[in-house]
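hey
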């Protein structure tokens, strides 16, 4: 359903990959992919990943933004968990304005990107990403 809504991909043509046989699984997953242009994928929702997503959105694309953390911001501008009550100035010091700007940017992009937190990219080859997701 997600692929069909976001990218017009007929999900009935996207098969389940059997990872017990990686070579044949990759061939199976890649079969028929030449018919579609895959969306751009950005790995990491830190400052560079968020800026890349904003640039792609400005170009009229809907990128997939993958991040291992539960919330965006990267290592330096990591967002605190919900219910956390410290101010940005206390959390980020002299970088508070940059952190707030970054968090505002991703908030504005939410409906124009496919953001997938808690997603670890385990491997990448031949047009395939191996992902591990929490939950």
């Amino acid at each position: 359903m997600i692929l069909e809504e976001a990218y017009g991909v007929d999900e009935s043509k996207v098969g389940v990959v059997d990872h017990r046989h990686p070579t044949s699984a990759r061939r199976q997953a890649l079969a028929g992919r030449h018919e579609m242009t895959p969306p751009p994928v950005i790995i990491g929702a830190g400052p560079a990943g968020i800026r890349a997503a904003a640039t792609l959105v400005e170009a009229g694309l809907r990128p997939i933004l993958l991040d291992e953390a539960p919330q965006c911001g990267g290592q330096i501008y990591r967002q605190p968990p919900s219910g956390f009550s410290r101010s940005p100035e206390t959390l980020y010091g002299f970088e508070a304005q940059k952190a707030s700007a970054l968090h505002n940017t991703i908030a504005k992009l939410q409906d124009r990107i496919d953001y997938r937190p808690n997603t670890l990219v385990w491997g990448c080859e031949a047009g395939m990403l191996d992902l591990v997701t929490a939950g």
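The two ends are 18 Å apart (CA to CA). The CA atoms of residues 7 and 39 lie 8 Å apart.
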